[in-house]
Amino acid sequence: MLTYNVAGLPEPLSGSKPAKNTKVISQRINAYDIVNVQEDFAYHADLVKHDEHRYRTPPSVPSWVPVPGVPFSDGLNTLSDFKLKKLDRVAWDRCTNADCLTPKGFTYLRLELPGGASLDLYNAHMNAGSGTEKMLRVRRHNVRQLSDYIRKHSAGRAVIVTGDTNSRYTRSGDIVRELRDDNGLTDAWVRLVKGGTTPEVDDDAPTCKESTECELLDKVFYRSGPGLVLDALHYSNEYAEFLDSEGEPLSDHNPPTVTFSFTVDDDGNGAAEAPKDATVRRR
């Protein structure tokens, strides 16, 4: 599966060229079974123009708004080859500066796997910025709000949490570890790329976007649940897959992808009909 901040703010507010690039992104995302997108604001029609996924979440806009976009949309959507159910959109209780122009937050939905097994899928976009203590404090509140929701609504269930966390393990003001550890989650990048060793807090640590070795703001967490065992098999920074014809990134974020395998236990829902092993992967 892929998580991707598509930089869909209206030009010139976007950090990219979404009027042109979103149509290209629409074609590229077809390579992945499940795609969680953030900042799908003003160019949603372009994003789905070439999309071939069978299931999509409807944009979060009032019925009287003719075109999805700022300031009504949270920019969070899921495109999937697997059936989506029980969608819930939750806005953050707190925000700062330009983040308050949209109802940013997270989505929760039930993802149905072959044979009837299911997991809870989250897609989040946290408060941006690290230049002030207020920005960091609000983002910490975002983390705890999401964590509280997971504990209440996904207790005892298999979970995948993805999105633009705007957080780094190396940044002293961030608490993304808390989201992971308090909910029994595994960070796919930490496990598969860093050998299970989480980077230490170091505000002077170098950052980059292009390499799989880089810690991205965009993260993928997961855990198994009764009747369903999830395993992350492969992690990749898909930087090279999302460049335009001139070699420039299609967004100001580079999307990570994780290939998952899932095994339905004999006691799991739908186990009698479900394949014992299957994958959620790049097509």
Automatic annotation (TrEMBL):
<dbReference type="GO" id="GO:0004767">
    <property type="term" value="F:sphingomyelin phosphodiesterase activity"/>
</dbReference>
<dbReference type="InterPro" id="IPR038772">
    <property type="entry name" value="Sph/SMPD2-like"/>
</dbReference>
<dbReference type="GO" id="GO:0046856">
    <property type="term" value="P:phosphatidylinositol dephosphorylation"/>
</dbReference>
<feature type="domain" description="Inositol polyphosphate-related phosphatase">
    <location>
        <begin position="30"/>
        <end position="214"/>
    </location>
</feature>
<dbReference type="InterPro" id="IPR036691">
    <property type="entry name" value="Endo/exonu/phosph_ase_sf"/>
</dbReference>
<dbReference type="GO" id="GO:0016791">
    <property type="term" value="F:phosphatase activity"/>
</dbReference>
<feature type="compositionally biased region" description="Basic and acidic residues">
    <location>
        <begin position="274"/>
        <end position="283"/>
    </location>
</feature>
<dbReference type="Pfam" id="PF22669">
    <property type="entry name" value="Exo_endo_phos2"/>
</dbReference>
<protein>
    <recommendedName>
        <fullName>Inositol polyphosphate-related phosphatase domain-containing protein</fullName>
    </recommendedName>
</protein>
<dbReference type="InterPro" id="IPR000300">
    <property type="entry name" value="IPPc"/>
</dbReference>
<feature type="region of interest" description="Disordered">
    <location>
        <begin position="261"/>
        <end position="283"/>
    </location>
</feature>
<dbReference type="GO" id="GO:0005737">
    <property type="term" value="C:cytoplasm"/>
</dbReference>
